[in-house]
Amino acid sequence: MDIRELRSFVKVAQCGGFSRASKELFIAQPALSRQIAKLEEQLQVALFIRHGRGVELTAAGARLLERAEVMLRYMEETADHVRNSFVEERGHLAIGLPPAIGTLVGPQLIRRFHSRWPKASLHALEGLSTSLQEWLLDGRIEVAVVYNQPLLEAFSVKPIFSERMVLVGPPGEQPKSVRIKGLAEFPLILPGLPHSNRRLIEQVAAQNGFQLNVPFEVDSVGLTKRLVADGLGYSILAHAAVQEDIADGVLVGHAIERPGIRSTVSLTTLKDRRTSRLALSWEKILMDTLEELVTVGAWKDATLWLGSDSN
After folding, report:
1. Assigned domain for 178 exists
2. What is the pLDDT of residue 302?
3. CA distance 266 to 149
4. Residue ranges of the HTH lysR-type domain (predicted)?
5. For the chain, where are the E strands, in sequence order?
């Protein structure tokens, strides 16, 4: 595939038609149509559905658009990397954060990154750990922070810290300690598999010989907390995700003991992709920021992980 044809394809998709795209590309419309026709012939699929109002992407076209945007952005990054000096880096970095960490430290991380790299652009994507892993594999992001990352061959994993998980209930209850097997008595609101927290909790239940009672499966932390506050059940969440709610009396936190459940936060990248200068800088900023928060107590009961990379 010719890079010029890919750029033309992306522009037609963005503009929704050939007429506007040809004006923005400064290409005659017949020439632009020939480029797209050649691309469709090479791929042996139709990329657009033509109609009176313009064009729409086919399923194959939508798949190509996702990859083409990544390829074009990578080419721009490569050109920036070659042109610019270390001090004048103008590249682009896409990173992934889970909702809890994004809410707690996302603004601080982005401010620090922008201060260090004022001419670089940053794309922060928020998603569940399973989504972040898929985006790493697809090339949509270069580095991600994930909860309870399984050891998979494709990933390089650097554990950062672990934090305790608590049983959260509606307001008005008295905080108490719950033994691990006692969790079987609570109607739980948990995310569905393969969510990393659900997988961790299921593993703990199996290891301790009991089954969970899960009447509701909800992947959203925010919605889960609202349902718990309304008395529809209980949930098991990382303390950082609910510490403000507990302090405000919106939720009640019950300690889980004998044994407790700890969730591990890790930095994850692809093994076979060279880490860019911006990504390495982001990792340093992230590690320093999280270490500060754990050390000063903003992440209560968190334990820094001093281990080496996992393969």
Report:
1. yes
2. 64
3. 7
4. 1-58
5. 48-51, 54-57, 92-97, 121-126, 143-147, 155-169, 177-179, 187-190, 213-217, 235-238, 252-257, 262-270, 303-304
End-to-end CA distance of the chain: 35
- On whether both 257 and 165 belong to a single domain, the answer is yes
Q: Per-residue pLDDT tens for 142-193? A: 999 988 877 778 888 888 888 889 999 999 999 999 999 999 999 999 999 8
Query: What CATH code is carried by the domain that includes residue 277?
Result: 3.40.190.10
How would residue 290 be classed by pLDDT, with cut points 50, 70 and 90? confident
Same domain, 115 and 144: yes
**176 belongs to a structural domain:** yes
Q: Which two tokens stand for residue 21?
A: 């795209």
Helices (H) and strands (E) in the chain, counts: 10, 13
Helices within 87-211 (DSSP H only) = 99-116, 129-138, 196-207
Q: Residue 255 sits in a domain of what CATH number?
A: 3.40.190.290
Which residue type is seen at 311? N
Mean pLDDT for 270-287 is 88
Q: Are residues 156 and 296 in the same domain?
A: yes
Tell whether the model's pLDDT for residue 212 goes beyond 80.
yes
191 with 211, same domain: the answer is yes
- Side-chain half-sphere CA neighbours of 219 within 13 A: 11
